[in-house]
Fold:
Amino acid sequence: MSNSKPAAKDINKVVLAYSGGLDTSVILKWLQVEYDCEVVTFTADLGQGDELGPAREKAERAGVKEIYIEDLREEFVRDFVFPMFRANAVYEGLYLLGTSIARPLIAKRLVEIARATGADAISHGATGKGNDQVRFELNAYALDPGIHVIAPWREWDLNSREKLITFAEQHQIAIPKDKRGEAPFSVDANLLHTSSEGKVLEDPAAPAPDYVYQRTVDPEAAPDQPEIIEIGFERGDAVAINGEALSPAALLARLNDYGARHGVGRLDLVENRFVGMKSRGIYETPGGTILLAAHRGIEQITLDRGAAHLKDELMPRYAELIYNGFWFAPEREMLQAAIDKSQEHVTGTVRIKLYKGSANIIGRQSDYTIYSEAHVTFEEDAVYDQKDAEGFIKLNALRLKLLARRNHNVK
Structure:
């Protein structure tokens, strides 16, 4: 089946990723008008903290008969966030991929709902300038090569907030009062992070206003006393906090609470979008920042040097695949298999001290440790003959000596 833009007459039903906000409310009506089709709405609870009841009410008022509102928090953390954290994935050295990792799950459910309802297409509210359009669509095509995607921002002429509001008023779409003016910035949130960009954040030289931060306290205003927590791991995944076993979503939510209280996980980043431009974003990933530090801490004593270094070499490529929308691509799955193999003995506990924006490891232990105090002690030992290091150094120096001799003779 061709993926070229479908004619309106060929579309009878569309599944829309729907938040209930101004943009997707306008899209819902626009699809009904422009394509003269039935719209199915899909709203995912990924832990963004919003009340989802209004989304159902708005969809009902718009005449939608099939409304899907799903709690995907456990699946999100278990099947997407945790596998990513096994890799210690960080994009461009800093970004913990909070928005990127949510998109494949949403795309997956859009495709599944389209199949279940007999829909001809799926639709999303991502703009033509951003990464999300790429992520939604690449992941959807990977799961259903024949799926049609309708991306209104690439089709319509409603290319400003004023035009969107005018369209909404013309079609009796309720407009939140704070949307009648220019929105100060755009926000995307889920259980892993909060992302803010646009408007007051577009000048990378200007500090972000304090009100942009929504999930964490200012580190300077955080408690004056540090807090120590212990995170338990099994095969690379966090499973407990302070000895209490928790489900994936509950564990991440608990870490978010700790991190938020201590101002952990703030990031002001200018990143390279897949579509080619640079953009500035303010990210808050309190629980994820703690989790990354803890996971690297338990790996320090359970991973062999060769495996650890290879993981670190593979990680930037793995992170870039997620950022660019290739979660369901074979190369990401190949890398995941290698990463998961490395995690077989990444089991144990890590103690972390949280204090005014920092999350520092202060201890780690594991039944699978390969750390040997007998080998590293500065005291007398019976397991390591220091004289052996001389031959090791001479063999490693051999090529350097030969190069130096050659270079000296050439001069």
About this structure: The first strand starts at residue 13 and ends at 17. Residues 8-73+100-183 form a domain with the Rossmann fold fold (CATH 3.40.50.620).
